[in-house]
Structures are given as C-alpha cells and as structure tokens.
Design brief:
By secondary structure, this protein is mostly beta strands. It has one helix and 21 strands. Strands 1, 4, 7, 9, 12 and 14 form a six-stranded antiparallel sheet that branches. Strand 10 (115-123) and strand 11 form a beta hairpin. The longest helix is centred in the N-terminal third of the chain and has 18 residues, at 2-19. Keywords: Signal. Residues 1-20 form the signal peptide. This is Por secretion system C-terminal sorting domain-containing protein. Residues 208-272 form the Secretion system C-terminal sorting domain.
C-alpha cells in the first residue's frame, strides 16, 4: 500500500510538470524604464498601444507582490493618452495567464473613479479570448495597497487560465487613466511532455517522429485536425491539415533549431538538425 501511494504521488507530480511551470514575476530585479523583463528563462516585451508603459521603480513601496507592498511594477507614469492600453508579449515561449494585480485610478491617482478593463489573450495575432471587467475594483489603498486581483481562473465566471497565448493585452476605459501591473503569475508552456515507462498518464492524441529530424516528419493522429508549426518566439510558421492515421509533412525549409508542433490540444517540441 505504501509503495502504491508513493507511486501515485509521483505520477501526479509528473502530470503536473508535464503541463507547465507556474511562475510569478514581481519585477523587483528589473531595470527602471525597461520595456522588457525576463522570468523563468522567458523574455517578455512590454508593448505600448496607447500611453507609454514600462518598468517603474521611482516610488518604493507602491507596488504589490500579491501579499505585501513591493517596489517595482509596470505602469504608464500618468501619461495623458487615453484609453491606456498595453501588452505583455513573449519572444521566446508560449504561456498561460493565471492571475495578476492592477492599480487602476485617475491621473491624480484617485482610486474612487468609475471605469472598466478589457483583458484580451492572443496567439500569433489571433484573439483567443477577450473579457471586460466592470466592477469589483479597489477604491482605496486598503489591505492590497490599492491593487485589484484579476483572477483568470474565474474572470466573469469563466476560466481562461488554460488557454495558450503569446500576448496578454490590457486596456483601461472610463475614469481609469493610470494603470499599474504587478505580481504577474503565469504558466510556462514548454511543449515538452514528460513520460514514465511504468504508467501512462493519458493517451496522446498525436505522435510525431522522427525527432530529431532533418526535415521529414510523420504525424500519427487519433483524429483529423490542423497541425501548426511555431518558432520558439511564438510565431506560427506553417499550418497543415492532418487526417486520422499517418500523415507525412516536411520542415526542411526551416533552419536548424527548435520548433513546436501543435495538434488539437497538444504541443510537441521538435528538433530540426
């Protein structure tokens, strides 16, 4: 019984790590004025759409790490352009969003104003989800230093934390003219499925071989779907239709390196020699 219990726990751990690694970026080691940051080995760019967003560290104690005040975060430093809008975009990996905290106020940092935010997730420029939150915002510093938790596992009653994206866009509307973002919790989608020879956690919908490859690949799929090939910076390079059974594709046109092939809900890392 004891060995069975230990084995079950190990299997569960393998399953968890197969789906990705959760990390929280608190921005405390990032440089003031930077428009990029690195967390868990992944580079993110801060893209300003309306107003100017970058790392802020000039006002110690005005951030929020999820449990206590901290010193650095993303903000638009009271820029007057409206409605403020920016994206967090990966250059080296796909990801999922778990939660983050927002400070939303007027330009004068008055929290007691009326506004809303729109949260959008994109993958290769295609919108995967978009939701507008209209209530439940902090109206005083209170116990969270004025920050509001945006929980992607239950945003407007829906769970968006399992959707793979390469860009998270946030737009503030109404009276919200200043936006600060801190404690960005995300899940790294490595595209690597760990296996055990003793148990099969779940049946894969597709197998891809040989891996590594010089170009030719066979995709054996359990159902018809579309196979999309991505570079490590999240750009979709090619899409092909695959039928149930064996399918032959070729990536000889791509340089040597690492690519991700996504079929249905699965992602496989492929090495091109």
């Amino acid at each position: 019984m004891k060995s069975t219990t230990i084995f079950t726990i190990c299997s569960l751990l393998i399953s968890i790590f197969s789906f990705g690694q959760t990390s929280t970026e608190q921005f405390e080691t990032e440089s003031n004025g930077s428009t990029s940051f690195t967390d868990n080995g992944v580079i993110f760019n801060i893209i300003s759409h309306v107003s100017v967003f970058d790392i802020q560290s000039n006002y110690p104690g005005t951030g929020w790490n999820g449990t206590a005040n901290d010193n650095r975060y993303i903000d638009n430093s009271s820029n007057t352009e409206s409605p403020p809008s920016f994206s967090i975009r990966t250059t080296s990996n796909l990801f999922k969003v778990n939660k983050f905290w927002l400070f939303l106020s007027s330009l004068e940092l008055d929290l007691n104003v009326t506004g809303s935010i729109t949260v959008t997730g994109k993958l290769s420029g295609v919108t995967k989800f978009t939701q507008t939150k209209t209530n439940g915002f902090a109206t005083s510093l209170g116990s969270t230093n004025g920050y509001t938790l945006i929980d992607m596992t239950n945003l407007n009653g829906q769970n968006y934390s399992n959707i793979i994206i390469d860009e998270l866009r946030i737009t503030a509307n109404g009276g919200f003219r200043y936006v600060g973002l801190d404690a960005f919790t995300w899940v790294k989608d490595s595209g690597i499925a760990l296996n055990t020879t003793e148990t099969k956690v779940s049946k894969k919908e597709a197998s891809i071989y040989p891996n590594p490859t010089n170009g030719p690949l066979t995709i054996h799929s359990e159902k018809s779907s579309e196979a999309k090939i991505y570079s490590t910076d999240g750009k979709m390079l090619k899409a092909v239709q695959v039928q149930k059974g064996s399918n032959e594709i070729n990536i000889s046109e791509f340089p040597k390196g690492i690519y991700f092939i996504k079929t249905a809900n699965e992602s496989t890392k492929v090495i091109k020699n």
